[in-house]
Amino acid sequence: SNNANVVLQVADVHKNFGGLKALSDVNLKVEEGRTHAIIGPNGAGKSTLLNVVIGRLPPSSGAVIFGNTVLTGLAPYKINQLGISRVFQTPEIFADLPILHNVMAPAFARRDGGFRVNMFGRTDRESEIREEAESLLEDVGLYAQRHGHAGSLSRGDKRRLELAMCLIQHPRLLLLDEPTAGMSRHDTNTTIDLLKKIKLRGMTKVIIEHDMHVVFSLADEISVLAQGRIIAHGQPDEIRDDPRVQEAYLGG
Ligand code: ADP
Ligand code: MG
């Protein structure tokens, strides 16, 4: 495929924890505007791979490249500023603050500079940011509760809040680690619809997911990880019937 469209490249990545090979020779390319799913049984190395991409874990060898930038060795906040946001693994909401302010806050750290405080102690772009936050809260179905405290939200609603907090950063790449884990079927379907809407905006996504219904509803491409190795890669139809995939799941 054409490398010019590759947003994220994982190249020959190995990650060992002592004697455990959590990732072995992982290669992955994510193209602009695509939703790339990574599936695999528990313990396959999915979260480890995401942690290597966002700089929380150094790879034992290999590299992660974002656009033209080698990420390997950069601090997580730096990688975030370059345009990679990750949702749902670390709930970093401000429980005592109103939901609306939770969504506005991450705009400060935006790579386009966010908004600055002017001589009157007001932020130049505060009303603009507020409008965007309100619109995102409408998208995630939390607009009516926007003045309530974030801490009072249900688990599913907190995840949707986190998604809005990521989207206001205008990431170039969105990483989702099991976005529907522990959700009811109804909340899962609402979240799928929401992620489809985001897909229409052309945002590039990597989604880690256990729930096959979610994967086949959203993914353009699927990579299957088992025991730290990519054992299959292809379009959803190719993956669905792949005996190696079925074996990995039944065996896992
Ligand atoms: P998945 O997300 O696919 O369920 P993980 O990436 O969490 O899998 O884990 C892959 C393997 O690496 C597992 O065997 C897990 O126990 C191990 N592992 C993950 N993180 C660490 C760590 N920080 N230290 C030691 N072993 C770890
Ligand atoms: Mg995991």
Automatic annotation (TrEMBL):
Domain ABC transporter: 8-252
Gene3D superfamilies cross-referenced by the UniProt entry: P-loop containing nucleotide triphosphate hydrolases
Xref: InterPro entries: AAA+_ATPase, ABC_AA/LPS_Transport, ABC_transporter-like_ATP-bd, BCA_ABC_TP_C, P-loop_NTPase
PROSITE patterns: ABC_TRANSPORTER_2
Keyword terms of this UniProt record: ATP-binding, Nucleotide-binding, Transport
GO MF annotation list: ATP binding; ATP hydrolysis activity
Gene Ontology annotations for the cellular component aspect, listed alphabetically: plasma membrane
Domain of life of the source: Bacteria
Presence of the UniProt keyword Transferase in the record: no
Residues forming coiled coils: none
Name the record gives this protein: ABC transporter ATP-binding protein
